[in-house]
């Protein structure tokens, strides 16, 4: 399938989605989000894909929602269409999604990266929530997810002033998992995604669900949830194979599904 606003390819068991509106720094138009949702759905259904990389260009992961498309909308327009509600699909994807961010990740672009399971950043990456400068506030989780990532003080400063954070600051603050030289970003993201895709799919889904649970419940409930999911993995062939392979000092051959 070909798309107008994204490029899609697979590298072994890794699905890659590249945001591709170069004339607008990958601004997130309705068309782009529609393409993104379709591509995610296709990778989610594809048994040959075990992990997904979401990336942009050297200059921009995405410079936010498309301001030109949004500027004339009225309150009734955005309220009735529930503007942005369809933009959350990345966060609902069950397969791991890694954001590989170079250049600008602003507004909805930063929010989109934060919806992924983790962010690998190029040393050129710049993160920000500049919506306040447009007379609005973040609308796709920026006030909520950024605060959970970096804490109240830094999130508040960024959301209130629109200041950008560079890659080094983003790593110090815990927004990104790692920073790599820009020229190595894509290869590194593919490598990490391939590592995940080679593991037991049941264990990978369970791990993702359990870490995400920590955002939505108390510590006691989260630990109980984790323990039960941990127990359930003893029902899989991959648990038998993974532990047997360790004891036999060989690489595990997971079934992956
Ligand atoms: N929307 C539409 N067009 C854009 C956007 C955008 N967000 N960002 C850049 N462009 C366009 C520019 O208009 C320009 O087009 P043209 O050549 O036709 O004039 C082209 O991309 C190149 O941009 P610049 O010339 O401005 O490039 P610079 O290198 O000088 O500056 C910046 C780069 C700093 C990134 C600058 O473009 C900028 O400030 N962009 C806007 C950033 C912004 O405010 N983002 C927040 C948008 S609001 C939002 O995201 C609300 C969240 C909604 C939820 C989203 C859910 C996922």
From TrEMBL:
InterPro entries: ClpP/crotonase-like_dom_sf, Enoyl-CoA_hyd/isom_CS, Enoyl-CoA_hydra/iso, Enoyl-CoA_hydra_C. GO terms for biological process: fatty acid beta-oxidation. It catalyses: a (3S)-3-hydroxyacyl-CoA = a (2E)-enoyl-CoA + H2O; a 4-saturated-(3S)-3-hydroxyacyl-CoA = a (3E)-enoyl-CoA + H2O. It is an enzyme of class 4 (lyase). The keyword Lipid metabolism applies. Keywords: Fatty acid metabolism, Lipid metabolism, Lyase. GO terms for molecular function: enoyl-CoA hydratase activity. The keyword Nuclease does not apply. Its EC number is 4.2.1.17. CDD domains: crotonase-like. Could possibly oxidize fatty acids using specific components. Belongs to the enoyl-CoA hydratase/isomerase family. This is enoyl-CoA hydratase. It comes from Roseiarcus fermentans. The lineage of its organism: Bacteria, Pseudomonadati, Pseudomonadota, Alphaproteobacteria, Hyphomicrobiales.
């Amino acid at each position: 399938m070909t798309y107008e606003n994204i490029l899609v390819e697979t590298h072994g068991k890794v699905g890659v989605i590249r945001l591709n509106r170069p004339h607008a720094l990958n601004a997130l138009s309705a068309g782009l989000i529609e393409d993104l949702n379709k591509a995610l759905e296709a990778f989610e259904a594809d048994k040959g894909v075990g992990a997904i990389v979401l990336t942009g260009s050297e200059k921009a992961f995405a410079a936010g929602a498309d301001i030109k498309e949004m500027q004339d909308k009225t309150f009734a327009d955005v309220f009735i269409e529930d503007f942005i509600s369809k933009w959350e699909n990345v966060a609902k994807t069950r397969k791991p999604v890694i954001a590989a961010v170079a250049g600008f990740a602003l507004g909805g672009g930063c929010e989109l990266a934060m919806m992924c399971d983790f962010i690998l950043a190029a040393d050129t990456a710049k993160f920000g929530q500049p919506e306040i400068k447009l007379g609005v506030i973040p609308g796709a989780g920026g006030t909520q997810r950024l605060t959970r990532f970096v804490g109240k003080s830094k999130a508040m400063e960024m959301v209130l002033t629109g200041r950008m954070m560079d890659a080094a600051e983003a790593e110090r603050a815990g927004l990104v998992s790692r920073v790599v030289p820009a020229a190595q970003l894509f290869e590194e993201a593919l490598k990490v995604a391939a590592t995940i895709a080679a593991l037991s799919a049941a264990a990978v889904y369970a791990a993702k669900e359990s870490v995400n649970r920590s955002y939505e419940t108390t510590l006691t409930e989260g630990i109980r949830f984790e323990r039960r999911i941990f127990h359930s993995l003893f029902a899989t062939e991959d648990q038998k194979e993974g532990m047997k392979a360790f004891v036999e000092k060989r690489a595990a051959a997971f079934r992956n599904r």
